[in-house]
Amino acid sequence: MTGSVRGLVDDYIGLRRGLGYRPLTQERALRAFARYLDGHEGPIPLETTLDWATSTASSDPCNPARRLATVRGFLRHLSALDGATEVPAAGLLGSTGHRKPPHVYSDGEIADLMAAARQLAPAGGLRPHCYATLFGLLACTGLRISEALALSCGDVDLDGGVITVRAGKRGLARLVPLHPTALEPLREFAAERETHHGRPGEEDAFFRTEDSERLSYNTAFHAFGVTRRRLGWDSDGRTRVPRVHDLRHRMVVRRIQTWHAEGVDVDAKMAALATYLGHVEVRDVYWYLSAVPELMNVVAERFEAFSGPGAT
Predict the structure, then answer these.
(1) What span, in angstroms and rounded, lies between the C-alpha atoms of 38 and 125?
(2) Which residues pair with 177 in a beta bridge?
């Protein structure tokens, strides 16, 4: 192996991005792994990798296994290059844990979140308007926050009512039609942004504040964290502490519930929902039926219909 680990990690991330992969969590873990190995030369021994995976302050017993699983692909890549880097066996540190059910926001919680976002500093400024609009868009469209933050003004067609997502998972682009009720808040924010900063260009970020021409992940997550703490939200009485990504989950769950209540054939709609959400596999949407408590009645009634009179 030639070159620093940091350089090799950068090359590996660049290779994956060229193939359409942009998992930011994995990239952060790989860069942390490279920092841990700063100054290391030669093939990476298994013992060193295990030392890094287990040197975590997290109290989650599955975290070392997840850290190890995150860097296995990179180690396989290095092994192919130098023939000597040791690749840990899958499951060497045990289970990576099960995917926790998401928190499904109630209508009241969404209203509280929007109201609290409008109270962010500075009072009367663009920042509170920006975050209230951002959180509302995530809740009604199910966009990933990465997709929303990457939107440019030219991607948001407020006349046609369509958003063009260009930063979807694995680099896939898609069109996201907007319900008429979602358009007015977006128009109001666009007008407020123009009042503060003038008419934007097509390539300018749609979501911005007084200080940030384009919101970063850390900035957006910090604003959500401030809002959540003001609301006093924690895991008590919930499946987990509410997260930004749970706004996407809420949209999926409410849509399936609405279809079921209206007597719509949910199975016939799943492919369309997967496309709208930017899922590569339809099975990613079916996960909700097995993992979200709020959808258990949908599953039960589907099973009853399947196994009822006349079933073979």
Answers:
(1) 44
(2) 162
Cis peptide bond upstream of 177, omega within 30:
no
Residue type, 66: R
In the CATH scheme, what architecture does the domain 107-231 have?
Orthogonal Bundle (1.10)
pLDDT, tens digit, for every residue of 229-284? 999 999 999 989 999 999 999 999 999 999 998 999 998 999 999 999 999 889 88
CA distance 37 to 57: 18
- The tokens for 297 are 């009645």
Residues acting as catalytic residues:
144, 169, 245, 248, 279, 288
In the chain the first and final C-alpha atoms are separated, in Å, by 61
User: How many other CB atoms are found less than 10 A from the CB of residue 280?
Assistant: 12
For the chain, what are the domain ranges? 5-82, 107-231, 246-307
Separation of alpha carbons 123 and 273, rounded Å? 38
204-222 CB burial, b ≥16 within 10 A, e <16: ebbbbbeeeeebeeebbee
DSSP code for 40: -
Predicted TM-score of the model (pTM): 0.75
**5, 81 contact by CB (below 8 A):** no
The DSSP secondary structure of 132-193, one letter per residue, reads HHHHHHHHHH---HHHHHT-BGGGEETTTTEEEE-S-GGG--EEEE--HHHHHHHHHHHHHH
d(CA 253, CA 166): 24
Interatomic CA distance for residues 184 and 193, integer angstroms:
14
Strand, helix or coil for residue 130: helix
**Residue at token pair 């850390």:** 218
Note the pLDDT tens digit of each residue in 70-120. 999 999 999 999 999 999 999 999 988 767 889 999 999 999 999 999 999
Residue 21 has pLDDT above 80, yes or no: no
